Amino acid sequence: MARLKGSCRCGRITYSLEGEPTRIGICHCTDCRQESGSAFTFFGVWPASSFSTSGETDVHNGRRFCPTCGSRMFACTDDEAEIKLGTLTDAPTALVPTYELWVKRREKWLSPVEGADQYVEDRRSG
Ligand SMILES: [Zn+2]
Ligand SMILES: [Zn+2]
């Protein structure tokens, strides 16, 4: 079974993931763009029981980040952990998006991920 590790830029926040993700996606929405400071977010969702972390994160709107270096890390509910996959230690990863959200806001120089479901907006409205 796969085990993945990640950390923030300064190393104060670390985490690990056991087993297979529930889903892997890319999101081009305004929230993700502004919050990440980049053109899209590459994220994965695991059952909360598969996720463990150490170090003190700060939180804004449920999104956790390192208060020292500012790395955006993850968001957790009782059921799920959503991880920003750029924080994984090893790259490239073996994780491939199965869906893309808010493709109407995708940069024109980016191509759709082959085989990934394409949603104009959120999964519900797409
Ligand atoms: Zn940090
Ligand atoms: Zn988004």
Summarize the entry for a quick read.
This protein has one helix at 30-36, and strands at residues 3-7, 14-18, 23-27, 41-47, 51-54, 58-60, 63-65, 72-76, 80-84, 99-101, 117-118. The chain is mainly beta and 126 residues long.
Could you explain the architecture of this structure?
This protein is mostly beta strands. It is 6% helix and 37% strand. The protein has a single domain, classed as glutathione-dependent formaldehyde- activating enzyme (gfa). The chain has one helix at residues 30-36, and strands at 3-7, 14-18, 23-27, 41-47, 51-54, 58-60, 63-65, 72-76, 80-84, 99-101, 117-118. It is globular. It starts with a strand and ends in an 8-residue tail after the last strand. It binds zinc ion (ZN) (2 copies). One zinc ion (ZN) binds next to helix 1. It holds the Pfam family GFA. Keywords: Lyase, Metal-binding, Zinc. One of its GO terms (molecular function) is carbon-sulfur lyase activity. Belongs to the Gfa family.
List keywords for this structure.
126 residues, mainly beta, glutathione-dependent formaldehyde- activating enzyme (gfa), eight-stranded mixed beta sheet, three-stranded antiparallel beta sheet, binds zinc ion
Number of domain modules: 1
Radius of gyration: 14 Å
What is the CATH homology-level superfamily? glutathione-dependent formaldehyde- activating enzyme (gfa)
Which structural class do you get from the secondary structure elements? Answer: mainly beta
Protein name: CENP-V/GFA domain-containing protein
Family: Belongs to the Gfa family.
GO molecular function: carbon-sulfur lyase activity; metal ion binding
Keywords: Lyase, Metal-binding, Zinc
